[in-house]
Amino acid sequence: MENQTIKGLENKLNYKPDKPFIYDYSLEQLQEWTKEQGEPGFRAGQIFDWLYVKRVGSFDEMTNLPKPLRDKLADAFVFVTLTEITKLQSKDGTVKFLFGLHDNHAIETVIMRHNYGNSVCVTTQVGCRIGCTFCASTLGGLKRNLTSGEIVAQVVQAQRLLDPEGERVSSIVIMGSGEPFENYENTMAFLRLMTHPKGLNIGQRHITVSTSGIVPNMLKFADENTQINLAISIHAPNDDLRSKLMPVNRRFPFVEVMDACRYYIEKTGRRITFEYALIGGVNDRPEHAEELADVLQGMLCHVNLIPVNYVPERDYVRTPRDDIFEFHRILERKKINATIRREQGHDIAAACGQLRAKHMEAQAR
To answer: Among this protein's residues, is 352 annotated catalytic?
Structure first.
């Protein structure tokens, strides 16, 4: 029944533009389309190359295609328009965008620079309905799913920014606004496009998808036979506290999420990352660390401790530095692999949803 509910919700929230976005189409779908147009098979490969290797922004720029074919493409498809509303650059090199969409909604995308390469954090939904009490993404609720092409366009836009520097997007994290596993089909289509060897060709092991624990689609993802990394937003070591912080826990209780994690590990042999946002005086006490370590004993996992970003609309405060280190020490002492996330973009409202929340507030005035 839950699977049907998720599928029904996904269909209800899916967005259908007047013309399909060209980025929504896989190479195989483009091959089928060009065949229907009476074009030779190699044309689809040329189109795909223009989209992902040359990264043009219009069909007219596809100069090795015959003019009639370019006209057909313009009649049949549109490019995703991401209008830059706001661009903020941190002292650490992090760049955060607020992009406007076709239908006047807005989404956030972040480029993070690491010593091992450039990572892009993408959004999968306009808003979010998960309701995590420490997150700005859920302010205003969920408006709709993004199409796979709208998710793709965020990475292409980031790569265009890096092109003049001779750099490339080396990794992707699907940790922006929204719940990827409530937009499962579009998220999976996006992942297939990003890893295609004739496209951006980003290695599967350089991509991480994060979920709040949508159990049916966690199980489905385990069966996909990919090398893509899975992260779970856990944020508490037990049902009661997790339900207070994450209302989604009432739909998919903690024990069911943990069972799904064990299934994933058993099925794939891959390590899971648990994301744990530390909130001052709420979930960051030594007893919470002890309980979390007990729950995770024996699991192939890694805990990513995240000092929570201050969100003006929420009442939570950051965990003191010494308490963060103590939490980490307890996990390590109990043989749970853990790291403290290096903060990026702290000076530019880097928490998910903050830019969009400010934009919505300004529009409402």
So the answer is: yes
